[in-house]
Amino acid sequence: MDPSFWLARWQANEIGFHQADINPHLQTYWPALQATPGGCVFVPLCGKSRDMLWLASQGHRLLGVELSPIAVAAFFEENNLAFTAQADTRFMRRQSGEITLVEGDFFDLTHLDLADITAVYDRASLIALPPPMRKRYAEHMAELLPPATPVLLVTLDYPPQEMDGPPFAVSAAEVESLFTPTFHIEALGGQDILAENPRFQARGLSRLQEQVYRLVRR
């Protein structure tokens, strides 16, 4: 998917994918990761997610990457966070306390950028990408992460013929196919959340399964 698609969505404020509340799966399943206390958590395609505030409240440092400058600016503004900004040849970095957001393309990151990462939280990254990009995403994530790094992955699954993404349907079988070569995979739980999401009912979905996985880089 061309980056201009997401830049246009933020420009037009078409951000139905943004959750105003802390994701309940994050709060329920984060302890299962056994993330290093005080370590640095990587949040790819982070938008302006308030989940980062929750992770920071648990004593973690945060590194998020986001393509849209509108989303990055909104995160700090809406949460009343003063920040410092520093540009290099690839990214603009904004930092407030233990939270750093990198404005730029996830695929431009290198393993050196994530050298001190101790855990990953992906609620809205994999499901934001069309099928051809998901394989590239999984391979690049494996290249970025140090061995033994745990990942909390949240996906959505629904009959793909009933709706065009994003968010895209990602089945359990696809998670296995994408990540088994380089990650250990454990399904932690899931539930049908269609009744709680009338906008997806309106789009014609008959089922909307949210699934949570623990991945660990081999």
List the helices and strands and how they pair.
Blueprint: H1 3-11, H2 24-33, E1 40-43, H3 51-57, E2 61-66, H4 69-78, E3 84-87, E4 92-96, E5 99-103, E6 117-122, H5 131-144, E7 150-157, H6 172-179, E8 183-192, H7 198-202, E9 209-217
Parallel strand pairs: 1-2, 1-6, 2-5, 6-7
Antiparallel strand pairs: 3-4, 4-5, 7-9, 8-9
Overall morphology: globular
CATH architecture: 3-Layer(aba) Sandwich
Question: CATH first level: which class?
Answer: Alpha Beta
Helix content: 25-40%
Mean pLDDT: 93
What is the radius of gyration? 16 Å
Strands ordered across the widest β-sheet: 3-4-5-2-1-6-7-9-8
Number of domains: 1
So, the CATH homologous superfamily?
Vaccinia Virus protein VP39
Report the portion of residues in β strands: 25-35%
Task: State the end-to-end distance.
Answer: 28 Å
Look at the helices and sheets and give the structural class. Answer: alpha/beta
- Along the chain, the helix and strand elements come as HHEHEHEEEEHEHEHE
Write down how many β-strands occur, each being a DSSP E stretch of 2 or more residues: 9
Could you tell me the CATH topology label.
Rossmann fold
Total helical elements:
7
Q: Uncertain spans, ≥5 residues at pLDDT below 50?
A: none
Sheet with the most strands? 9 strands, mixed
